Amino acid sequence: MRSVKCCLNAGFILIAVAAFLSQAFTATSVAVPASSCYALDNSSRLLDFSDWIGETFVYDGKDADIVIRFCKDVESRSQAGYVDFGRFDKFNYFVAGSGPVDLIQEFYNGDLLNCESTFDKMGRTAQVNIICGNCLNGQCKGRQGCICNVTYESTCRAIVELAIPCEKPGLRVFEGFTVGFHPRSWEIVYNGMTQMGFEKPHHDFSFSTEQPHVTLYLTAIASLANLVQKPVVKVFPENGLEVKLLGTGATGKPPTTLSPSTLLVDWRCLKAQNTPYEVNITIPVEGYAPVEFFLTKMCEYTQNQEGDATRGWATFGIISCIFMVLSTLFCCGGFIYKTRVERQ
């Protein structure tokens, strides 16, 4: 029996170790959430509150009630009616707090009545200080949370303290890191998060066979740029598309805002197929989740070796030069012959 127990214990230990190692080696990148209702905490970890959008919290006040619709708006409700204290959109602030406040939401563009000239003419505004857990006074021990306190800086601005059970922090985001198409036109990665359309392969948006390469630029905060490592590329299917990474970005040169790195994705079709090839580029970052994105490439026909193409252009150039020399000689000979005939 002891031997059986020892074998079972050893088996459980091996399974646990294998599970740990599998999680350690399958760290994924961070894709931007589907909504703008998210924030990065003080350790740069992602908190996604997309499932909380519209969740209602009510605070019973003496003269009026304050109602928060999470990631939507803040209202004051009384018998006289509703007063809007601001709305939330993707341009509003949802940032990390300090001290007992974990996160801060800002709401702008509320009702203008008697607040036409306050806060850069943005009407009534509200600041929601979010505490992950319970209120400091011990209130609000329910699952969905509640409003702990409401104060008014003026008739045009409300400060609301909200306690909620925050989402579990996600991966650590390398803030300030950007990858985009060069010349600058579209961002693939913004603020360390892969943008929609590049977080997974999309066969409907593929580069054509004729496009021999794609140039990308990389930028990061100067003080953290040395954490960026050399990119790694994987292709699926593995055979049929040759991909090379060139440029300063491929060598691991630290990219900064003032001195961006360039990453040239050079690809060549070795085998034609009806579906696009999937090109996965991963940029490891020391101490953070890796940056990962996908590009897709069509191969409707095979392409010659780069050397063959170079030799082809060289041959074309030589033939063109010979043709130009012969044309010049022919014209000169014709002119000389015509001159002699006219003199006779």
Walk me through the structure.
The structure is a single chain. The chain starts with a helix and ends with a helix. Helices cover 18% and strands 34% of the residues. The chain has 344 residues and is α+β, with helices and mostly antiparallel strands. The chain has 2 domains: 38-164, Cation-dependent Mannose-6-phosphate Receptor, Chain A, CATH 2.70.130.10; 178-299, Immunoglobulins (Immunoglobulin-like, Sandwich), CATH 2.60.40. A hairpin with a 2-residue loop joins strand 10 (146-154) and strand 11 (157-164). It has 2 helices and 20 strands. It comes from Corchorus capsularis. Keywords: Membrane, Signal, Transmembrane, Transmembrane helix.
Please tag this protein with its features:
alpha+beta; Cation-dependent Mannose-6-phosphate Receptor, Chain A; Immunoglobulin-like; 2 domains; six-stranded antiparallel sheet
Short synopsis of the structure:
With 344 residues, the protein is an alpha+beta fold. 18% of the residues lie in helices and 34% in strands. The protein is built from two helices and 20 strands.
